[in-house]
Amino acid sequence: MEKLTLLKKLCEANGISGCENTVREIIIEEIKDYASDISVDNLGNLIVYKKGKSTPNKKVMISAHMDEVGFIVTDVTSDGFIRFDQVGGIDRRVVLGCNVTINNKVNGVVGIKPIHLAVGDEGTTIPKYSDMYIDIGAKDREEALKYVSYGDCINFDSPYTDNGYSIISKAIDDRLGCYLMIEMIKSDLPYDMYFTFVVQEEVGLRGAKVASYTVNPDFAIVLESTTAADLPDVSDNKQVCNVGKGAVIGYMDRASIYDRKIIEKCKEIADSKNYKLQYKRAVAGGNDAGAIHCSRGGVRTIAISVPCRYLHSQSSLIAKSDIDDVYNLAKDLSFELAEGRV
Description:
single chain, Aminopeptidase, 6-stranded antiparallel sheet
């Protein structure tokens, strides 16, 4: 995984919730010669069956979401500026001044009222989205509508950078999970396995709910990115997890209480194989496990995540060393679950 060219391609692709088709097409092209069956459901989930060397004792599903956070066009002003709202959870503090691309065809920049015109506390408070606009340089509404339509998808427009030990990019959440599943599908597997590349995680875990109902697995592994707050002046007990210290698992978040026997199996595997493993030190966030573990009669579920700083921004940061720990732990765990050893 040294070059990570596919991860770069996935992160640079644009696909906010509900508009994941470009990402899905890239994935299909990558796995079509390795998968035994590929289908797309009515919501847009990509459900993949990979035939292994043997039939498993238990059905295992590995899942990651294709969508990323972003924005949507809500209006165009008479003087040609674009009004917008968020798709998924985004800290408004990271939005001002960002370069964005609208519907993959026109670039713009997020702006607000100039500071010299700010009145009262306008210059120090975080503006609401209703007070922001996107400037594409149009002279008026008529010209803007030649390039932009209501409901158009808006994505962060930022470079993917790899400095040798870390990666900085938009959409690492969760294109990294998609990348790892593609690598698993391309590998030789000892057991049959299901892989679900799901949609609309960022707006309510919607795709995972549908996909897990279709696959009906005994076990599920969710591959994700999770918030790391290991930053200056943040105390240890508030850092959640640490970049560079390996794969992250947790006992509980805002959407799930994870299977404790699977957690113990993760620790057993990590100890025996010398994989770096850390525990999430806060009950925070949530992911597709929240929908999967409650589907049908219940699914025994775990999330394995890469620690990520500046999540849901144009410049998320991960350590390259953590990628291997997440991949190796997830793959080894999937074999144990398939054998029913948990």
